[in-house]
Amino acid sequence: MSEAPWDARPAPTAGLPQLAGVMLKVGATGFGMGMVGVLQQEAVTRRAWLRQEEFADGLALANLLPGPIAVDAAVYVGYKLRGWIGATVCLLALLVPAFAIMLGLTIGYLHYGQVPQLHGVFRGLNAAVVALVLAVAYRVGKSSLRSAPQVALAAVALGAALLHADPMTLVLACGVIGALLLIPRPKVTP
Amino acid sequence: MNLLRLLLVFAKIGAVVFGGGFVMIPLIQREVVQHYGWLTQQQFVDAIALGQITPGPILISATFIGYKVQGMAGAVVATLAVFLPSFLMTVVAARHLPRLRRDPRVAGFLRGVLAAVVAMLVMAALTIGRATLWFDWRLLLLACAALVLLVRWKVDAVYVVIGAGAAGFLLERG
User: Fold this and answer.
1) B88 and chain A in contact, CB less than 8 A
2) Predicted-complex ipTM score
């Protein structure tokens, strides 16, 4: 897979319908973080709308900001290519498949959720959700808790959460503490 | 009135879901289950599970909650509201990206936030686990098996969720 020829050509233009089409596909075929992979394949590899570095910048931004990484990245792609309208089209197109499917599942659940045969299914799903959340905690912890003070802050936060501290306050308070105390040491620059 | 409340609650949640959609679990639980009583704990956990088997972002569970509270209009409002804050921030921040990435205070803020995120995820697992798995060793075992599949063998979450649903169905019948 050589990327050089693409850089030599001018970047293909992305019309709003094409953007919408790609985002519908990403939203319909990617699950959670899996969407990032589909998005990259479509926007960088297949259509060369963005160079790999530009896409990586989008992912970095998505990491800095709240919101699912894949959604932020899709909005970034849309904004880069077609400004505000592009960003809006990307967000809405990305959400349409998930929204439609979730709506169908919700209506089905509210009608048939009490069917006894389904109790077992939902209990199994509960077990999976607990495992998933722990797996995410492990992954985020392993990749993001990189210093002793940070681990200590996480432990204090867990203690506060166990004492029923308000989650929103907790996130913002830890952010402020981090901005004051967990600032990375400046690198020596010439 | 409920629509306005849905809008505010979900926009508030959307503004602080750092580190991936799962952080919404304690946030939504606090507001939607404990504060407003829009969903029971069981419905809330089921909404999260349904969000798992739906393609797209996990935050789409907002659609379920919105629909439960205020039908179709509620579903649309909750879904848009939860994604609105990060949408606005992404578009506005896209131009200032290089400066943001260099700012040590931003990096510090994010380090602090991620510490809280890890704590809240553990808390979310404890809360859901206590409500649903605690009294059934078979489900506890199922959760442990799922965890091993996810962490040790990096099995895709969708398959784990579907497999666990099937296992639960068989356990209930057997």
Assistant:
1) no
2) 0.86
